[in-house]
Design goal:
Blueprint lengths: L1 H17 L72 H10 L35 E2 L2 H7 L16 H5 L4 E2 L1 H4 L22 H4 L3
Antiparallel strand pairs: 1-2
The structure holds heme C (4 copies).
Length: 207
Amino acid sequence: MKTKWLFGLISFGACLVIGVGPAMAAGIAGSDHDFSGSSWSGGKICAPCHTPHDANTSVSGAPLWNHAVSVATYTVYSSTTLNASVGQPSGTSKLCLSCHDGTVAIDSFGGATGTNMITGDSNLGTDLSGSHPVSFTYNSALATDDGGLFDPATDTTSLGGTIDEDLLIGSKLECASCHDVHDELGNEKLLQINNVSSALCLTCHDM
Ligand code: HEC
Ligand code: HEC
Ligand code: HEC
Ligand code: HEC
């Protein structure tokens, strides 16, 4: 009885030390995108990316955008087997690149021009030829053309809906198809679906 109680106390203590268990606490607070601890953020979490008023409307579909937008031209992925037509990044992918292409400071928001650039592996640069294609329509016709893709209109994901409902934005594949910018799911690398055993890849690729 006493040993059991002591064990319970120790495991409870261990949980407090390591957090909530193997999965990280979900949510934007404390995630890679929580800049409220940076001196330049004014202690705000949402403001580097969103504003309730005077938003930047230059990118269509942008959610009340507050960050300066990149004007870079990108080298995009191409291959002899690619069926999709992939143009310049647009939509919400363009919003991610407004920090992740390394041409605009992280703290350039709300009309201010910042000085802190993104560094390391998080800086994808403007040459995206080695990155998974984004900003193209992924529909049933593309799945038929390709032959190695699930049908986004009918095939489902582990999140509970179809690929189109859960991962596409206006039927397009974007950065946010694979990444959860607000870290609501708490997966490594902000992934929409944990990629253990390539589960994320195998959600769309039928191989
Ligand atoms: C690092 C940038 C960043 C931060 C910080 C951020 N967001 Fe977002 N948010 C985005 C991007 C990019 C999108 C569009 C892509 C998407 O929806 O996944 C978005 C979409 C949204 C949307 C519309 C789609 C949805 O998910 O409902 C809402 C609402 C939103 N954000 C609210 C917030 C709030 C509230 C905060 C602060 C607690 C916040 N965001 C912090 C980048 C950010
Ligand atoms: C306001 C600037 C900003 C915007 C907008 C932004 N990010 Fe980030 N992101 C960062 C910074 C800064 C980091 C942390 C880099 C570090 O710690 O090395 C980061 C981290 C990440 C990471 C985790 C990297 C890792 O190694 O764990 C991913 C994935 C990511 N962002 C994807 C996105 C996606 C996808 C979008 C758009 C939906 C987006 N980001 C929008 C600034 C931004
Ligand atoms: C098809 C899915 C997919 C798409 C689309 C995608 N990513 Fe990723 N991304 C991943 C995976 C998976 C990882 C983790 C790779 C690893 O751990 O080696 C990753 C890693 C990252 C990282 C961390 C850097 C690193 O090397 O680990 C950043 C930052 C990032 N992605 C940003 C973006 C941005 C910005 C876009 C859009 C331009 C994007 N991603 C599009 C799947 C994707
Ligand atoms: C949301 C769905 C989705 C996810 C998740 C996804 N992909 Fe893709 N991927 C696609 C689509 C659609 C294409 C375009 C195929 C085409 O047009 O030939 C593509 C293209 C590719 C290509 C280029 C194919 C070519 O013919 O050049 C490769 C390789 C690839 N994906 C690998 C991956 C890997 C690895 C992962 C996991 C890290 C991943 N994909 C995750 C949907 C997805």
